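User: Can you predict the 3D structure for this chain?
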Amino acid sequence: MLLVSEPILNSEEKAALSDVVDSGWITMGKRVRTFEQIFAEKHGASDAVAVSSCTAALHLIMQSLGIGPGDEVLVPSLTFVATVNCVRYVGATPVFVDIESLDCPLISCADAAAKCTANTKAVIVMHYAGYLADCKKWQDFASSRGLLLIEDAAHAAGSDQVGKFGDAAAFSFYGNKNMTTAEGGMVIASDEDLLEKIRHMRSHGMTSSTFQRFSNRTVGYDVTMLGYNYRMDDMRAAVGLTQLKHLNRWNDKRRVLTQRYIQSLQRFCPGVDLPFANWCASSAQSSSHHIMPILVPKDADRQTITDGLRDFGIQTSNHYPPAHLFSLYRNVCPSVYLTRTEEFAQREVTLPLHPRMEESQVEYVAYALRSILNRQL
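Assistant: Here is the predicted structure, written as structure tokens:
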């Protein structure tokens, strides 16, 4: 089966994990700190905070920025549901925003502007599929309204400019991401005080970690704020350090494969719409090319297409079911209709894209899709 995503894990990761085991210190030690520093450096930031997941990163960002009950947060619906859930974790209200277009399925600035109220406190911009939202446009949008700007960068590790224009950015290292620690996340922010607050909050609000107390030969600590158990362990950090060495090369491979997909699908499957195709033609726009979304023809049956691709040995996925249509949020926000998001989600199929693939496999996927569409249409 040609998988939608496939992590690259080999002897380097095994050796790194063995080193942690042999060291006798397996959590919140010096490897976590080193991982934070190198990840920050790679993204042009002064520092970063490693946590247990991107969900934890988003939650800590919102908590530390003072978002809470009575506040509204503008969010995309075309995202993993954690983006929205974290707004509710802090007691705030999510306000769902449509995408710009089927060609550019990023959160719409125009729709966000229309949904701002006196209670709007922040906006979460999600870099869907690894394609970065317009930095200046969103900075102007937030600053002109006095809003906090948060980047959901779960798809965008390694991209140019990511994490540089919001108040804070949250990254994911889940198993299907461009680099992985199995589970894990990272926070980048330009405000050092904000990062320090997040650093304490991730570990129960304690003023020092076990490793710090061991290193400094002290036994006491204080708890200065309500915190959480969102720590990263040294095993995951060791894997992350190894993965970081290859991130640029892997992202370059994703870019090459994406370009081949666009060429092949335009040639073999002209009825299929390709979001971001024009974006990919411009070298000035940044992307980590995290996933390969396509839109099947309006009159095609998506389930038949995905079943047919599986018969060819090709796994597919759907990124994403709209969050506002889940039962939880239909009860909370029953009157929300996002026409562009809903059409996109109904037609979207995610094709395999990962650095283990070869360009010949991209051609095979395009051939298989053409065969299925020719039978169906």
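The longest helix spans residues 247-268. Strands lie at 48-51, 72-76, 93-97, 120-126, 148-152, 168-172, 185-188, 292-295, 348-351.
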